């Protein structure tokens, strides 16, 4: 997953500028936040998704708790599609974002809406991708 850092929009231009600056996301040098999953665990009522979260040039292993997890066949994609809400609490200091601790706590909860499509050769052909 890739999130364009410049998509931050708080509704206040001056706050957006601060968040995109070197003290927070440093979007000039680190334009994206990425998450690459490495393992999914379906443990009854508490599924999780583990992987590497990269923010501001720092990568840390995190485990996201999955809620509202469901999968179904999707005619648009001609494949199984899974939807979930994911959340994890991170420490800003782990990602070299220590400024303004008196305004923003070190612990920040991230909540994401995820959609995963099972890749198949037919899906790649439908999108015009080369065969894998």
Automatic annotation (TrEMBL):
UniProt cross-references to InterPro entries, sorted A to Z: Lipid/polyisoprenoid-bd_YceI (IPR007372), TTHA0802/YceI-like_sf (IPR036761)
The Lipid/polyisoprenoid-binding YceI-like domain, residue ranges: 1-117
PANTHER family: PROTEIN YCEI
Listed name of the protein: Lipid/polyisoprenoid-binding YceI-like domain-containing protein
Organism: Thiobacillus denitrificans (strain ATCC 25259 / T1)
